[in-house]
Amino acid sequence: MNTLALGPQWLNSDYLITNFGLIGVLLIVFAESGLLIGFFLPGDSLLFTTGLMVTTGKIDKPLWLVCTLVVLAAVLGDQAGYLFGRKVGPALFSRPDSRLFKQENVEKAHDFFQKHGPKSLILARFVPIVRTFTPIIAGVSRMQYRSFIIFNIIGGTLWGAGVTLLGAALGNVEFVHKNIELILVVIVLCSVVPVAIEFLRARKKAAPAAPASRAQARGRHAKR
Fold it and tell me: What letter does residue 95 receive in the DSSP assignment?
């Protein structure tokens, strides 16, 4: 199965699974679920392709076992993120930007968590970048651990098993086999849409504020 490379070859789902197998999938799911360095990894398309490869026999493991391991990796990844957030605390918000770390990603996840509360741990699973930082923000905010575990398991199950099962189900559809590149593009676009919407909303809110601040500045200057 040749899939469209939506970025560097080493981020292509087919390439990752072919070269690193199920162990590679689990490590990537773990990293993207709660490690700062995992935000750029292709979680959605990777899980979909994993389910597809189970159906076609390229991953020689039972579907129930693959889904169970994926969910476990996702839950443990969020767990690591939560514990990291509790340990680092507010210092995370003053950490300088680097090649792999952008303060704006932390702020987006923080706003997402503040807006949706505990259920953000479920919703964020389906939003790239945000899903990596949300469990960390939950730790920074010292969210009640019992609530975190419950929402973490629910979110990890819906995302990890859900997307994998979707790939497995559609793997039996001839159209999907003939248009796998298109399917993966659609998955990536769907996962990016929430991020784009939030970006446009933030930009729209910031637009009226800019002229107002300039007007205030001119007023202060005129008084002088």
Answer: P
Reported as type and span, the H/E element at residue 166 is helix 162-170
Q: In angstroms, rounded to a whole number, what is the distance separating the alpha carbons of residues 22 and 28?
A: 10
Q: Which one-letter DSSP state was computed for residue 18?
A: H
Neighbours of 20 (CB within 10 A): 14
Instruction: Give the separation between CA 48 and CA 162, rounded to whole angstroms.
Output: 9
pLDDT score of 199:
53
* Consecutive H or E run containing 223: helix 180-223
Q: Is 49 left (phi over 0), alpha (psi -120 to 50) or beta?
A: alpha
Q: What are phi and psi of 120, to 5 degrees?
A: -65, -25
Q: Which of the four pLDDT bands, split at 50, 70 and 90, describes residue 217?
A: very low
Q: What are the backbone angles phi and psi of residue 111, rounded to the nearest 5°?
A: -65, -40
159/163 Cα distance (integer angstroms) = 6
* Tens digits of residue pLDDT in 22-59: 998 999 999 888 887 766 677 788 898 899 889 888 88
Tell me which of 174 and 99 has the higher pLDDT: 174
Q: Report yes or no: 164 and 44 within 8 Å, Cβ to Cβ.
A: no
The helix/strand/coil state of 12 is coil
pTM score over 0.85 = no
